[in-house]
Amino acid sequence: MTAFEAYLAKTGREDVSLYIAGDGPAMGELQTRLQSSPVSNKVHVLGYVSGQQKADLLHSCHVFVFPTYYPEGCPVSLLEAMASGLAIITGSTGGIPDIFVPENGIMLSEVSSNSVTTALNALLTDNAQLNQIREFNRGYANKHFERKVITDRIITLCQSAGEKE
């Protein structure tokens, strides 16, 4: 049972859908599993998305689940989700703890179907908290990761490195 199936079974919610964006070697297996899934009508496999399609998708959702256990560097998708005002559920691997603060959502100590289900339930049953996180993330991403902010940081680092030589 997937985390999404477990979440729906546990909560009985009918108003929740799952959008899966991206592609990779597991796409065929995913499609096969969905054919026999009782929640297949709630799951939308989009494949690779970019540009306006990605922007529209991010702005139409409430929660961004990135349950990675792969040692990511700084996943741009997390920054895009924050900037779009999505609450985040993610693993605590690689560089993610360097950009994630508790106010962004939920960082999982372990990635499992149960941990994702519990995190989804926590966020989707408390609208006030969900809205607070979403609003925080818009401002946080703009303040810390907007293009000009990062460019200015890089220029400052380069200037300070040149002064030390």
Order of helices and strands: HEHEHEHEHEHHH
Total tally of structural domains: 1
Largest sheet: spatial strand order: 3-4-5
Major sheet: size, sense and barrel closure? Answer: 3 strands, parallel
Mean pLDDT: 91
The CATH class turns out to be Alpha Beta
Proportion of beta-strand residues: 5-15%
Which blocks of ≥5 consecutive residues have pLDDT under 50? none
Question: What's the total count of β strands?
Answer: 5
If helices are DSSP runs of H or I spanning 4 or more residues, what is the number of helices?
8
Radius of gyration: 18 Å
Please name the defining characteristics of this protein:
single chain, 165 residues, alpha/beta, Rossmann fold, three-stranded parallel sheet, two-stranded parallel ribbon, 8 helices
Map the helices and strands.
Layout: H1 3-11, E1 18-21, H2 27-35, E2 43-47, H3 51-60, E3 63-66, H4 76-83, E4 87-91, H5 96-99, E5 105-108, H6 113-124, H7 127-145, H8 147-164
Parallel strand pairs: 1-2, 3-4, 4-5
